Structure formats: C-alpha cells, structure tokens
C-alpha cells in the first residue's frame, strides 16, 4: 500500500478533496506515495488557522522559538541518510547530493534557531531633549510560502525557518512533484512544540492552492521560488492588495573562463555547475564563456568530461547525474536540444534520451558551442544542457556575461587578482564565484539576484529579517 501524504492544518492531519501520485523518476514503477490535494476551501481553512495563531506565536519568547527550530534542525541532521534517500527517490537527485541537501536543511533550521535569540533593534537619542527612540522588528504576520521541486528540503527550510524564527505563522505549499519531502518536514515540525495553526502544510496545485494563498486578504506576505511567468503573476496579484512579496525566479548564469585559468580546475567547475543535480537548479552555469586563446582546448576537455559522466538511478552507487524530475521536464530538455540544433549551434555531445535497467526520465548531458543569440544561450532550460560561447578577451567575456535578462549568479576562473576583483565588482549578478562552481552557497549568507532573477529582500542569513519582519519606530518622553 502506498504511503499517504496528508495536509497538516491547525495541528491536525487531513485528507484532501482528491488524490495525486508521486512517482520515482529513476523508476516509474516505484510509487513513492499518494498525496492529498486541497481545494480553495481547504486552503482557506489553513489560512484562517494561521491567522488565528498569529498573535500567540508572535508573542512567544525567543527561547521558545529557538527550542522549536533547534529541535527540527537536530532531527533533520540525525535522519539525513533516511530523509536523503526519500529525497533522491522522489526528486531524482543523486543520493550523496540528497543527503547533503538534507543536512543543509538541518543547518538552516539551526542557524535560524540562533537568529531567534538575536533579533536586532536599536535605542537612540532623539534630536529633541527628553525623548527616547526605539527601533524594533516585529513579525509581518501570516506568510504564504510557495516552494519549487528542485530543492524540496533546503528551499522550504530557508523559507519556513526564518518565518517562524521571527514570529510569523506559516501556510506552506510545496510543488506537487515532491509531496513526500514536504510531508516529512511537516511531520517533524508537527512534533516540535509549535501551537496549532502556527505551521500549516497544504498540498495541491498552484491554480487552486497557490492562487488562494496569493489572493487571500489574510496573508500578509508571500515568498515564492519558481518560474518567471508565475512569479510575475504573483507579484501583480499580491501587490494589488499591498502584500509583501519576495520572488526567486531563476537564472541563465555565466561561468567565464579566462586564458590564465587553471584549465583542469575550470573544466571541473563547469561540469559541476552545469550538470550536477541534473542541471535542475537556478544557479546552474549553463553559459560557459571561454576566452578565445584557450577555447579549443577547453571545449575538447569539456566534451570528454561531459561524455564520461555516469547517468543512472539516483540511488545507485557511482551515479553522477540522475534523471530529469518528470516526463514534462525531460521533454522540455529534449525540445531545447532540438532548438539548439535547428538554430545552428554546434553540437558536441549528449542530449539523447537514455534507457536504463529501470524505466525513468534519463538524458545524457548535452554540450553545444553556441552564439549569444541562440535560444539555448539565452533561455533557462533547467536541465543538463550547457553551451560554450567564445570571447575575444576579458572585456568581451564580461560583456557577454552581463548580456542576459537574468542576474542570479556569475562565476569567473582566473589567476589574475585584478581581473577577479574587477569581475566581482562589475558582474551584474546577486552572487559571484571566483574559481568555484556557480552552484553551491552557504546557509548563513544572503541568497538572491538582480534583474529578472529576483524581487524583494534576499533570502537566507541575517538578511532574511528584511522580509520576515516589519520595522517599528517608537518615541517615549523620558522626562
């Protein structure tokens, strides 16, 4: 019998109006579980529960919030192998990556447990005699959190943990492809000592659950990670009623390789950034911009390394690249491979659907030499498809790196301190990596981008307070 993943609303587990099925993308014969799907009415009940719990949780002590979040973080770390296996089975990430993500989720909860004890404030002297000024941070209220499927534990963690740490109540909607991971996290939270209604999990579609959250007048703030199109529609709907909005919407990230770079290291950074996690991450370096003097050598080395990558079942030892998360995602990847060929990009390797002992959504990593105008060099694919672009020199490479509507992350491989420093200053991105893969950020530092990649305050780290709190200035006559 399949595991049943239920909603968690107002401190109780609830069944849904309809049921969906979560499949293992590495083995479509393996059903991970059945999950409840909510309608608008059930979503509204979760929102009302969060609204009813709002004042009590906002008034809770920092120590209590610390204890709740620290307990969740400790359990995630203690169960990282078990929960990592669930993640790999449901989302298709390789087991080492999945275990690493689970540990990262635990670290995020522990970080924000500490933040609950150090919520900042100020006391200032007024310019008027006999008057004191206090500046404090208070919870925003009810927050709706809408998370994607590609990091089904880490991204929910970096939304839920700060929301609760700063005294907000939560309505959490995960992606329908990963209900098991969301349910596992909710089950831990259900035992952590939260009052009923402080945290609510609602499973279901964006059209019903997500839209209800976005449009509800009881939801004070919305944090969304996903596609540009959906993010823009959320921004329009939420700002029309003056809700606070935070959006992370993807990237088309450049990795610049200069002629003075250590080429072997640069190739490894490009391979990890472009293809690990099956390229299904917004920080993936799908545009690899290489200085002309070393372009041919780099392209051949990159082609050989790409062809050698092991594609297979996410739980099998030795697998480097797991399956695409779904049939729809695989078809999108294949469509972009065809687009690249049709537009005249030079195909180097990969981009073919693969058969493995278990039926799944397998694709060989694809590599092209492209022109900046090609769609595969401009549009986010969200799969293991990367392109090489030739640059005349450093200035040309920087211009190409910035020639994108996105601005999440950018990387450079160079031995020149001067060029690395210049790139860090002039790359039009929220995050910059020097001699590292573009993908991979720490849990205690701000995450976010510029241009079409992001909107609103940064996620993670102490900067999360900018979104999850509101500032109050209070004056007191001291005489």
Topology record:
Blueprint: E1 4-5, E2 7-9, E3 12-14, E4 18-24, E5 27-37, H1 40-58, H2 62-78, H3 80-91, H4 95-116, E6 122-125, E7 131-139, E8 142-146, H5 154-165, E9 169-173, H6 179-190, E10 199-201, H7 206-215, E11 221-225, H8 228-240, E12 244-248, E13 254-257, H9 263-275, E14 287-291, H10 292-308, H11 327-342, E15 346-349, E16 353-354, E17 362-363, E18 366-369, E19 385-391, H12 394-402, E20 406-407, E21 409-413, H13 417-426, E22 431-434, E23 450-451, E24 454-455, H14 465-468, E25 469-477
Parallel strand pairs: 1-5, 8-9, 8-11, 9-10, 11-12, 13-14, 13-21, 14-19, 18-19, 21-22
Antiparallel strand pairs: 2-3, 4-5, 6-7, 7-25, 12-24, 15-18, 16-17, 20-23
Could you write a compact summary of the structure shown?
The protein has helices spanning 40-58, 62-78, 80-91, 95-116, 154-165, 179-190, 206-215, 228-240, 263-275, 292-308, 327-342, 394-402, 417-426, 465-468, and strands at residues 4-5, 7-9, 12-14, 18-24, 27-37, 122-125, 131-139, 142-146, 169-173, 199-201, 221-225, 244-248, 254-257, 287-291, 346-349, 353-354, 362-363, 366-369, 385-391, 406-407, 409-413, 431-434, 450-451, 454-455, 469-477. It has 479 residues and is of the alpha/beta class.
Structural features, described:
With 479 residues, the chain is α/β, with parallel strands linked by helices. It folds into 2 domains: 4-249 and 453-477, Aldehyde Dehydrogenase, Chain A, domain 1; 254-434, Aldehyde Dehydrogenase, Chain A, domain 2, CATH 3.40.309. Helices cover 39% and strands 24% of the residues. It contains 14 helices and 25 strands. It has helices spanning 40-58, 62-78, 80-91, 95-116, 154-165, 179-190, 206-215, 228-240, 263-275, 292-308, 327-342, 394-402, 417-426, 465-468, and strands at 4-5, 7-9, 12-14, 18-24, 27-37, 122-125, 131-139, 142-146, 169-173, 199-201, 221-225, 244-248, 254-257, 287-291, 346-349, 353-354, 362-363, 366-369, 385-391, 406-407, 409-413, 431-434, 450-451, 454-455, 469-477. The strands form 7 sheets. The protein has a 7-stranded mixed sheet, with helices on both faces. Strands 10-9-8-11-12-24 form a 6-stranded mixed sheet, with helices on both faces. Strand 8, helix 5 and strand 9 (169-173) form a beta-alpha-beta unit. Helix 1 packs across helix 7 (206-215), helix 4 runs parallel beside helix 5 and helix 9 (263-275) packs across helix 10. The protein is globular, with a radius of gyration of 23 Å. The mean pLDDT is 96.
């Amino acid at each position: 019998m399949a595991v049943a993943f239920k909603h968690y609303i107002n401190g109780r587990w609830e069944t849904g109006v309809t049921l969906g099925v979560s499949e293992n993308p590495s083995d479509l014969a393996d059903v991970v579980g059945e999950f409840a799907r909510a309608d608008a009415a059930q979503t509204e009940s979760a929102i009302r529960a969060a609204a009813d719990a709002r004042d009590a949780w906002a008034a809770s002590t920092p120590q209590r919030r610390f204890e709740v979040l620290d307990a969740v973080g400790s359990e995630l770390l203690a169960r990282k192998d078990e929960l990592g296996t669930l993640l790999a089975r449901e989302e298709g990430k390789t087991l080492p990556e999945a275990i690493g993500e689970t540990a990262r989720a635990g670290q995020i909860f522990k970080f924000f447990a500490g933040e609950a004890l150090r919520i900042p404030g100020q006391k200032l002297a007024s310019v008027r005699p006999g008057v004191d000024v206090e500046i404090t941070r208070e919870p925003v209220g009810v927050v709706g959190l809408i998370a994607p499927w590609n990091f089904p534990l880490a991204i929910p963690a970096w939304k839920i943990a700060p929301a609760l740490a700063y005294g907000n109540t939560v309505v959490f909607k995960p992606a329908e492809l990963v209900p098991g991971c969301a349910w596992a996290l909710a089950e831990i939270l259900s035992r952590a000592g939260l009052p009923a209604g402080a945290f609510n999990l609602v499973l279901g579609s964006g059209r019903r659950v997500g839209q209800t959250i976005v449009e509800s007048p009881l939801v004070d703030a919305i944090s969304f990670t996903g596609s540009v199109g959906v993010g823009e529609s959320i921004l329009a709907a939420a700002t029309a009623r003056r809700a606070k909005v935070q959006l992370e919407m993807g990237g088309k990230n450049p990795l610049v390789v200069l002629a003075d770079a250590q080429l072997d290291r640069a190739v490894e950074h490009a391979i990890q950034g472009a293809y690990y996690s099956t390229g299904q991450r917004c920080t993936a370096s799908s545009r690899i911009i290489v200085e002309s003097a070393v372009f041919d050598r780099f392209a051949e080395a990159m082609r050989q390394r790409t062809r050698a990558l092991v594609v297979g079942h996410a739980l099998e030892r030795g697998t480097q690249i797991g399956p695409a998360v779904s049939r729809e995602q695989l078809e999108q990847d294949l469509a972009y491979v065809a687009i690249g060929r049709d537009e005249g990009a030079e195909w180097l390797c990969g981009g073919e659907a693969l058969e493995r002992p278990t039926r799944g959504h397998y694709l060989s990593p694809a590599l092209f030499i492209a022109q900046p105008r090609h769609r595969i060099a401009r549009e986010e694919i969200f799969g293991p498809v990367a392109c090489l672009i030739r640059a005349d020199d450093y200035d040309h490479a920087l211009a190409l790196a910035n020639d994108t509507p996105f601005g999440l992350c950018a990387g450079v491989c160079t031995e020149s301190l001067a060029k690395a420093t210049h790139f860090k200053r002039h790359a039009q991105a929220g995050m910059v990596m020097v001699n590292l893969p573009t993908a991979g950020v720490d849990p205690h530092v701000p995450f976010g981008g510029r241009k079409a990649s992001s909107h609103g305050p940064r996620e993670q780290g102490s900067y999360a307070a900018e979104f999850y709190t509101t500032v109050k200035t209070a004056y007191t006559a001291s005489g």
